[in-house]
Write a structure and sequence with these properties.
heterodimer; A: alpha+beta
Chain lengths: 378, 403
């Protein structure tokens, strides 16, 4: 008997989890202050959730479930302001971005919970260098079969999510040449990658059960896949995004995921072609490395496609499935930024070029997070 | 050349420099011994070596040598006070008003309780007031060294740094203002009574301001190069200490003002945060060994009722102020209690403040020293151990770090 029961949820509702950087306001390095900040935020929480994450310098905020973009954005802004107010009391800064540009992973402290200690022991330095910050988008599904179908259909668009959110060009004090270096940290884990080519929920359950009997995993949490089903929520969880520099962009990414899911499931549950995963890992790398300039390999058309063009087409297509006018505007803004070559990672690089200091880059990230605009005041 | 004149004559007479070097080496090794064998903070080892070698005991570090080493003490303390000043974030104090309330409360309460306790012991009002003013200050050097050693960070660490910077400013300013009453007591004349404290305060601020302005200017031109800024900073600290000594203003206040103004006037953020690195260790060793030597055995023997009353009143005042107000800043009650412990140590600053008064009125200073220094011995030896334990209990250290 499997323990995996897919709890149905309202289709195409969305929820967002964001991992945020807690930094000090002196040199803007990460600050192991989650244990100080968390209780202050929890006391004032109206909606959504705040959670500790594996390292002490990370705070996760989670929204409630939303049907439309306008509500999602409003809740995210509320959470952002609440966290900022409490962080200010402790003289801490909060920043978006997929990775801290110059923190040294040896300095990180692990949050004192049994699960995190277990992970730290199992994975050694991997657990600490996993101090990276991602956005998870949950999309509601009314059945396990639909969820499996949606995951396979979405896998073609993983590069699109990557380039729209990429905000980790710097790692350990150096420019990695990647637009999103964060995903390289995820790759190091043995159970990262993608869902195996199962065709429906029953096949997935069988796969999970065998992995559990083999004692490779004990729960769904042990899979670090880019997109994975979350049976207890009844959702498909997209996990490849870096935490963007603003909540506005985070809400727009959720709107994109929501509209894309609607679009992909519009003509019934998609069929699974296991061979399509042959190009998956390579395309993912190209997107991380080159961002919008990547030339992806299109499995169906057997040719190279321009990621920028393909993304603009996809956004145009998805726009027809937007949840509300606010969602459509968010998708328009994404398209506009893609056309103008404006991205979080480009801004981070430009800020570094201008100031010559990664500490100033993080200071800028804090300002951008608070104001919602990519700009740096002295 | 006929004889062996190029050889030194025997018996060898080691110069001051060689002796100071040897003493620092002994201090360093003893500190390590303390840490490895007893698992106690290295500071305690440095202090004990200072006390043991000092004029009160073995007299290897005699008064002449101490005078020669005074410049090392001044520079070490200067660097530490600069760093402490630069840790004071006035913007934060403005945004979180409860922090300032906490600071004023813990300083005022420790002053009041120590003053009342000493009056109860029939100490003269002026002595009690100066001793109580010194009691406001927490040791910057102990705090910074424990933070360096434990690589502490978190809400308690941040507040401890800001509160210590503030209470040292309060202490130095109050002691300076009490100079007026000292002059009055010793019938020095009204003009001296008024002019001297004003000169000390304004003079120290002016030197600190000039040093800060120049440092920010130079740093902007040098750019964000750690190596260059480090050398510049040490040079500016030397310049500031030297200028303060030459102008006969307060070295303590000058360097605190320098640090605070440099950090808070640096609008374009050109100044890198202070990272003295291994060089800092040298100055910590020097500072604590020399502080120990100034303390002398007789202070340790004098630890009697008065010193214990002083210590208890001071710690009670700090704890009370912090327990009442720190939770309003956003600190949990448990951490607030531990913060009170972290602010307990006293060391070099207290010694220097006593010395300052001794230089002006030796008799007064000697009497003051009798009260304060014996308490400092207790707080310098027990304080670092308590602070280290407090940081660990607060969970703000990195135990698993490889060393």
């Amino acid at each position: 008997m499997s323990i995996l029961e897919f709890r149905r949820s309202e289709p195409f509702t969305v929820g967002v989890e964001l991992e945020l950087q807690i930094v000090n306001r002196r040199d803007f390095d990460l600050s192991a202050s989650a244990a100080d900040l968390l209780p202050l935020v929890e006391k004032q929480l109206q909606s959504g959730e705040v959670k500790p994450e594996i390292t002490q310098s990370m705070l996760e905020i989670a929204t409630s479930v939303h049907r439309v973009h306008a509500d999602m954005l409003a809740e995210l802004r509320g959470l952002r302001d609440l966290v900022a107010r409490q962080a200010e009391r402790l003289n801490l800064g909060i920043a978006g971005g997929g990775a801290h540009p110059f923190q040294r992973w040896t300095d990180r402290r692990i949050f004192a919970t049994p699960r995190f200690h277990h992970l730290s022991e199992l994975y050694g330095y991997l657990a600490k260098q996993f101090t990276v910050f991602g956005q998870h988008i949950h999309i509601g599904c009314d059945s396990g079969d639909r969820a499996i179908g949606l995951i396979h259909a979405m896998s073609r668009y993983i590069p699109h999510f990557i380039v729209l959110s990429a905000s980790s060009p710097f790692l350990q004090g150096v420019d990695t040449a990647f637009e999103s270096a964060r995903l390289n940290s995820v790759n190091a884990f043995p159970l990262s990658g993608h869902l195996p080519p199962v065709r429906n929920w029953a096949e997935f359950e069988a796969y999970f059960d065998s992995m559990r009997e083999l004692k490779v995993v004990s729960s769904m949490k042990d899979f670090y896949w880019d997109i994975r089903p979350k049976p207890e929520y009844g959702t498909v969880e997209v996990r490849v995004c870096d935490t963007p520099l603003t909540v506005e962009r985070a809400a727009a990414l959720a709107a994109f995921g929501q509209a894309l899911a609607r679009c992909l499931l519009d003509s019934g549950t998609p069929r699974v072609d296991p061979d399509a995963y042959r190009v998956y890992g390579y395309n993912r790398f190209l997107a991380c490395r080159f961002g919008l300039d990547a030339e992806l390999i299109d499995f169906e058309r057997r040719e190279k496609v321009d990621l920028r063009e393909d993304l603009l087409d996809t956004l145009r297509l998805a726009r027809r499935f937007a949840s509300d006018t606010s969602g459509a505007e968010a998708l328009d803004k994404l398209a506009h930024d893609v056309q103008q070559n404006e991205s979080d990672s480009a801004w981070l690089r430009e800020t570094h070029r201008r100031t010559g200091s990664l500490s100033d880059v993080v200071r800028g990230q804090c300002q951008v997070w608070q104001s919602g605009r990519r700009a740096l005041e002295p | 050349m006929t004889s062996l004149d190029f050889l030194p004559s025997f018996p060898l007479v080691p110069g001051d420099l060689a002796l100071i070097g040897a003493i620092l080496a002994i201090g360093l090794l003893s500190g390590e011994l303390f840490r490895r064998l007893l698992r106690l903070p290295r500071i305690s080892g440095y202090l004990l070596v200072g006390i043991a070698l000092g004029p009160g005991a073995l007299d290897l570090l005699d008064r002449d040598l101490l005078a020669a080493a005074r410049v090392v003490l001044d520079v070490a303390l200067g660097l530490i006070l600069y760093e402490l000043g630069s840790r004071l974030d006035l913007g934060w104090v403005r945004r979180n008003r409860w922090l300032l309330v906490t600071s004023v409360a813990e300083s005022a309460l420790s002053f009041a309780l120590v003053y009342l306790a000493l009056r109860w012991l029939a100490v003269s009002p002026l002595h009690a007031a100066v001793a109580a003013a010194i009691a406001m200050s927490s040791s910057p050097s102990v705090l910074l060294l424990v933070i360096h050693d434990e690589r502490a960070e978190g809400a308690l660490t941040e507040q401890a740094l800001n509160l210590t910077a503030l209470n040292n400013i309060f202490a130095v300013v109050t002691v300076t203002m009490l100079l007026a009453y000292m002059h009055l007591e010793y019938q020095a004349g009204v003009h001296i009574m008024l002019l001297h404290p004003v000169y000390l305060l304004l003079g120290s601020l002016a030197v600190g301001y000039a040093a800060a302005a120049l440092t920010v200017l130079f740093a902007g031109w040098l750019g964000k190069r750690e190596d260059l800024q480090f050398v510049m900073l040490v040079s500016m600290v030397l310049l500031a200490v030297g200028s303060a000594l030459a102008l006969r203003v307060s070295v303590l206040l000058t360097l605190l003002a320098f640090g605070v103004l440099a950090r808070n006037r640096d609008r374009r953020r050109v100044l890198l945060p202070v990272e003295f690195g291994p060089a800092a260790q040298f100055f910590f060793v020097a500072l604590f060994v020399l502080t120990g030597a100034y303390l002398e055995w007789k202070d340790l023997r004098l630890v009697g009722g008065a010193a214990l009353v002083y210590v208890m009143a001071r710690v009670a005042g700090k704890l009370l102020g912090i327990l009442v107000f720190a939770p309003l800043t956003g600190l949990r009650l448990r951490k607030a209690a531990l913060l009170g412990v972290v602010l307990a140590p006293m060391a070099a600053v207290a010694v220097v403040l006593v010395q300052t008064t001794t230089e002006i009125y030796p008799a007064f200073g000697a009497e003051l020293g009798g009260i304060v220094l014996s308490a400092v011995v207790v707080l310098a030896l027990a304080g670092p151990i308590a602070a280290q334990v407090a940081f660990r209990l607060a969970g703000e250290t990195r135990q698993e770090a490889v060393r």
